[in-house]
Structures are given as structure tokens and as C-alpha cells.
Amino acid sequence: MREKNWEIKDIYRTRAGKKVLPEDAFHNELKTYKLGYCHEIASEVTNKPQPKATRGPTLMGDIWAKVPNAKPIVIEFNINFQPISTKWQERFEVPEGMHPWILKSTNKKWKNWKSRIKRCYFNPALPVDVLVKRKPDRVVKDQWKSLLLHWNMEEVKEWSERNKEHRQKLVMPSTTGKLSFAEITAELTERLGRAPTRVELFAACYCDSECDPSNPEVGAKVSKLPPGSEDPLGPNDTFAKVMGKDPPGRVRMTGLGVCPSDLWGSNPNRNACYQMVLEHQELVQQQQATIARIEEKMDNTSRLLTRVEEKLQHQQVSSLGNQSNSTKLGQNLKVGREVLLKNMEGKVVALGWLNSLDPNQVVGGARLRTSCG
């Protein structure tokens, strides 16, 4: 009898949910087949790819563990209220008016985190009671149950399917990595000495360091964009003519938080109003500082004038007193009369005789003048 070459699928096959042996299998071969099957199963388990080790949630202990009185890090923002500093994820000192972008950024990060949670822990085929027990460690129990009920709503499922279809239409991945479009724009502005066009931004954000497109779709778009285009950003610039109209509420190549009304709207939006208020407040502060300096100078000048007036009055009183004394002395003095000469302290330093009462007479190369007469 020719020996049959049995396979695992011939030995263990499913019949009504049970695993049975083929009818013509010899019992003395059963042990061999079982051992071979178990060895194959063990090999599959051993060779099964293990989950990739990851670093887990980002804690940023060197940032959030700073002492409360540590000096905050100043963050630089552009005119569109987007951070362009390389340290914007650290503890920050945010200028006034930047809070709308912070809220939008927080909302985006929260949305992306919920998306990862849904992808890893949610299965629409399982009942909610089972999914509740699969709660992630970082989610509160009551919030997890509410989130499951929300995801199981038919309307939410329809939204999810539509969003998946729209996501599949995004066929041009960027090559910016962790850098935002705002940071790329700041780098190009410093390098070019002017604001880059959207054509230049597209090449910088969707091509690698060797200027090679990230995929064929990007290459097709790049070939249609004229190199060296320097037309300013606008709804009908060269980039818009090739890529098409911008999506509602967004401007391509500008990043998070920038909408058409921010750049070419007829009426200022909230961010523009914030900027106008900040500029007005800065102008008012400068004017107030200028007024304070002028008032300080006026006070100093007023005090100086007061001292000058007091000095002049004192000199006038002294002059009148000297003239009065000279008049009295002149009435009593006579030529040839004996007089005493005194110093500034009133001590007698010399004895003499009056030679003349004429104030114009020259004595020792100088006129006597009235006070000396």
C-alpha cells in the first residue's frame, strides 16, 4: 500500500465547528501528525511579529517639571498669529492675541488623540458592554463610556465614513516632518530676504532635500508650476490657478489657523482686530511715555526758573541795599577824611584818607564806580 503524504489541512479540518481526522488516517500515524501540527503551531507563535516598542506618551519632564518661579521662554509669532519659534512646545510666554491659535492647536491635538484611541480600542462589531472593559488607562471611565455611545451613533458613523473617503483623496504627503508651514515660511523669508510665494512653499514642503517630489502626484503638480514665480500671495495667484480654489475657510500653504479673510478679506477678522488693538495699545503706551518725559522736563525747567527768579530777587535786594548804603556813606564822606578799610569778614585791614568821590576816577587801572565812591 502506497503511503499517503498527509498535510495539516487534511488532518485538522473544520466540520460543524469541530476538528476531526480524515477517515483513512492510520492510528499509528496520529501521534506523528499531532506532533507535527503542534510543532507548526509553536513555530507560528514563536515567529509571530512582536509589537514594536514605543516610548509611550510624551511627558516632557524637562519642561513641565520646571519650578514655578522658573523664567518662561519667550515664543515668537508671525503676523498670522502662528508660532515660528523652535521652542514653542516648551513653557512659554505667549503675547496677547495669540490665544485663538492656541485653542485651535489644542483642539487639533485633542482630535488626533481621540482618533488614535478609536483606532486602537474601538470595534463597532462589539457591544458597548464589552468595549467598556477595554478602556485605555489614560481615559476616565465615564468619559470612555460616553465616547463609545457617541461613536456608535448612526450619524457619527456616517460622518466617519465620509471623512475616510475624503482622507483617501489626500494623495500628496508633505515632507516637512515636525516643522509647521509657518516655520518653513519663516526660514524661507530669512533665506530669500522676502516673503516666499506659494509656489516656493509647495516645493519646499512637498519635495525632499534633493528637490525630488514625494510621489508622482506631487511631481505632476510641480511640473505645472512655473519655477521662479514671484507673484504675491492671493486668491488668483499662479499657485491657485494650478491647484484650484482653496477649500472653504483655509488657505493652502499657510498652516493652521489662517483663513482667507485673514489675508485678503475686505473686513478685518478677529485676529486682525487683535493685531489692531495691540498696535493701538502700543502706540498709546509710547505716547504716554513721551508725555511723561515732557512733563518731567517741564517740571525740571519750572524748578530751575524758580531758583533763577529767587536768585535775581536776592541780587536786586542786595543791589538796592548797597546803593542805599553808598548814598548814606557818600553824604557823610568828604575828600581828605580818614577812612577804615575792612575785608569781607568786617575786620579792619587798613587805614587811609579819601582821595576822591568821583566814580569815574581811575585808581590802580580801574574806575572807582558808584559803589566805591
From TrEMBL:
Keyword Coiled coil: yes
Source superkingdom: Eukaryota
Keywords: Coiled coil
Family annotation (Pfam families): Transposase_24
Coiled coil: 277-311
Keyword Coiled coil in record: yes
Protein name per Swiss-Prot or TrEMBL: OLC1v1012681C1
Organism from which the protein derives: Oldenlandia corymbosa var. corymbosa
